[in-house]
TrEMBL record:
The chain crosses the membrane at residues 7-30, 36-61, 73-94, 114-134, 146-165, 171-190. Its main location: membrane. The keyword Transmembrane applies. This is Ferric oxidoreductase domain-containing protein. Residues 43-156 form the Ferric oxidoreductase domain. Keywords: Membrane, Transmembrane, Transmembrane helix. The keyword Chloroplast does not apply. Signal peptide: none annotated. It comes from Roseibium aggregatum (strain ATCC 25650 / DSM 13394 / JCM 20685 / NBRC 16684 / NCIMB 2208 / IAM 12614 / B1). GO terms for cellular component: membrane. It is a multi-pass membrane protein. InterPro entries: Fe3_Rdtase_TM_dom (IPR013130).
Length: 203
C-alpha cells in the first residue's frame, strides 16, 4: 500500500472520529448539564467510535496494524469499549439512579433505553467469552461464530440506541458514524467468511 493511500485512510478515519465529538462538544444542550452527565455522554460517543474501530482492526483494513498487531489492538479496543460503557452507565447512574434502574429492568418509557441495555449486555458477554475462551474450550469455529453473533447484536443495538436519542450528538455526523460502523461490521463478516464451513485462518 502506498504511503499516500495509507495517509488518506488514516486521515479519513481521524475525520470520522473527530467530527462527531467536536459537533457534540458544541451542542447547546451541554450548557445546563452536570459535569458527570456530560462525561457519561461523551463516554457513550467514545463507545460508538470504538464500535467502528473494532471491525476495521479485526479485518486488517487499517494500514500498519494488520495481522497480529491488529488482533492485539482489537483486544485492547474491546477493553476500552467495556470501560467506556461502564463509565457511560455509571455516570448516568450517579445523575439519575431511578432512570438507570428502569432501563436495566426494561421498564423505561424511552425506547432507546432497551436497545442500549441489550447492546451493553452483549458487550459484557463478548468480553466474558474473550476472557474465558480457553477455559471454556471453545473451538475456533464456535468462538468466531459466537463472537460474531454478539458483535452483530452490539452494533445493531448501539446504532438503534444512538439514532433514537435526541441529545448532544449532531444528527448527520451521528448517522454517518452509525452507518459506517454497520458497513464495517458487515464487510468483515463477509470477508472473513464467518459462516463458511471453514472460516479463513481456521485449520
Amino acid at each position: 500500500m502506498s504511503r499516500l493511500r495509507a495517509f488518506l485512510i488514516w486521515a479519513g478515519l481521524a475525520t470520522i472520529v473527530v467530527v462527531p465529538i467536536l459537533a457534540a462538544a458544541a451542542s447547546p444542550l451541554l450548557q445546563w448539564r452536570q459535569p458527570v452527565y456530560i462525561a457519561a455522554g461523551f463516554a457513550g460517543i467514545a463507545a460508538m467510535v470504538l464500535l467502528l474501530l473494532q471491525p476495521l482492526l479485526a479485518g486488517g483494513y487499517l494500514p500498519g496494524v494488520s495481522g497480529l498487531r491488529g488482533r492485539r489492538l482489537h483486544l485492547w479496543t474491546g477493553i476500552l469499549l467495556v470501560s467506556a460503557i461502564i463509565l457511560h452507565v455509571g455516570g448516568l447512574w450517579i445523575t439519575s439512579p431511578p432512570d438507570v434502574i428502569d432501563a436495566l429492568l426494561f421498564r423505561s418509557p424511552t425506547p432507546f433505553s432497551a436497545w442500549g441495555v441489550i447492546a451493553m449486555w452483549a458487550v459484557f458477554a463478548a468480553a466474558f467469552l474473550a476472557a474465558f475462551r480457553w477455559s471454556l474450550a471453545l473451538s475456533p469455529r464456535l468462538w468466531r461464530r459466537l463472537h460474531t453473533l454478539l458483535a452483530m447484536v452490539i452494533v445493531a443495538g448501539s446504532v438503534v440506541h444512538a439514532l433514537l436519542i435526541e441529545g448532544t450528538m449532531e444528527t448527520y455526523s451521528k448517522a454517518a458514524l452509525c452507518a459506517l460502523a454497520v458497513a464495517a461490521t458487515v464487510k468483515v463478516i463477509v470477508d472473513l467468511r464467518i459462516w463458511a464451513r471453514r472460516s479463513r485462518g481456521e485449520s
